[in-house]
Amino acid sequence: MNPEAPRKTELEELLIDAEADDDSVQQAQPSVVRPWLLLLGLVLVALNLRPALSSLSPLLAEVSSSLGLSAAKAGLLTTLPVLCLGLFAPTAPMLARRFGAERVVLGILLTLAAGIILRSSLGEVGLFLGSLVAGASIGIIGVLLPGIVKRDFARQAGAMTGVYTMALCLGAAMAAGASVPLSHAFGDSWKIGLGFWILPALVAALVWLPQIGQKHGAHRVAYRVKGLLRDPLAWQVTLYMGLQSSLAYIVFGWLPSILIGRGLSATEAGLALSGSIIVQLLSSLAAPWLATRGKDQRLAIVVVMLLTLGGLFGCLYAPLEGLWGWAILLGLGQGGTFSLALTLIVLRSRDSHVAANLSSMAQGIGYTLASMGPFAVGLVHDWTGGWAAIGWIFAVIGLGAIIAGLGAGRARYVQVTSEKV
């Protein structure tokens, strides 16, 4: 078995191969009665996968002051939903097999709405419990959506993955930029700023409802993939996913607090985070395309990680007069790191069965690892009483991501076996 992957058009070929596999997709591309409605539903669902995470950070100082939270507790609050992304991701395939992916997405959208309400209405207990429920909901839906895209938009899988990623970034940017103005518009109530995001979740559930009655295609042959946990390349992909995600969730959870500590208002800090996330729309589409033009992805991984670290250190240490330049640099880097992490899952897999299992491993273990970053920031800030030492966390995580990425970026396939069950 030749471990070398295709060199130039590997992403496109693997996407085609994954969908053309006659054992995994025997029904070919299913006939969707109203594909525009499914597309709209997918976009609206994806828009809801980040607001519960990015809406809290601009309001974190106000929430902590109101409820008397220490920096360590605030760090736990930013860590909890990310930890749930990893812990609950493996339950998604089991739920989908039992109830169907469409029904699970609808039900989990409603639990996401419930989590948003809990954290904005029941004080400290509700804040933590609601964050747990919201993180678990996002973790489950996040695993299911890519599979629905591959199944119902097989010929447009690449373009749809780009649309899906853009919707994620847009939802995060909207929540980061609008949460503080919303709270100010309703009497300086952080509860309104957090609770508002139940509305897009309910709208998405309403638009998604017709999919329950559709006859979507389904895999009729199940496969068991063996050897993934023993494969070094699979672990390198997982570590890269987890470490770059750790930096992303530190930004979601703590960047506004860092900027407020440096002298910005809460509104200005939220807008800086929102602007940085909006820039990710550009690099999240461009980075995978550029990365697949060469023989492998190692250079692209190093470049986007250096951009990310440059933006982080600039936001932390550079004069505030140049903040927007550093925020843009950060956005360009992080949009590339996230989209490359998703792309590596496809490029390092020989077929759709392996890709599905590698995705579950990378997200389940990776996001669990990622949750440690925001928690470490809270602890270090609590110990030192400032933000200067946080740069060491950025450096250690970023260096680890580069090392893992240099392994994951090689043009090879994970070495596993697949068998029917």
Could you walk me through the main structural features you see in this protein, from its secondary elements to its overall organization?
The protein has a single domain, classed as Growth Hormone, Chain: A, CATH 1.20.1250. It contains 18 helices and 2 strands. The chain starts with 9 loop residues before the first helix and ends with a strand. 56% of the residues are buried. It has 421 residues and is mostly helical. The protein has a two-stranded antiparallel sheet with strand order 1-2.
| CATH topology-level fold name | Growth Hormone, Chain: A
- CATH C-level class is Mainly Alpha
Total strand count, please? 2
CATH architecture: Up-down Bundle
- The H-and-E topology, N to C, reads as HHHHHHHHHHHEHHHHHHHE
Average pLDDT level = 82
Transmembrane segments: 36-54, 74-92, 104-122, 128-149, 161-182, 194-212, 233-252, 272-292, 299-320, 326-347, 354-377, 389-408
GO cellular component, one term: membrane
Pfam families: MFS_1
Organism: Pseudomonas lactis
List the helices and strands and how they pair.
Elements: H1 10-20, H2 35-47, H3 51-54, H4 60-67, H5 71-88, H6 91-99, H7 101-119, H8 123-152, H9 157-185, H10 190-195, H11 198-208, E1 223-226, H12 232-261, H13 266-291, H14 298-317, H15 323-347, H16 352-370, H17 372-384, H18 390-408, E2 417-420
Antiparallel strand pairs: 1-2
Helix pairs in contact: 2-8, 2-9, 2-11, 5-8, 5-12, 5-16, 5-17, 6-7, 6-8, 7-8, 7-11, 9-13, 12-13, 12-14, 12-15, 12-16, 12-17, 12-18, 13-15, 14-15, 14-18
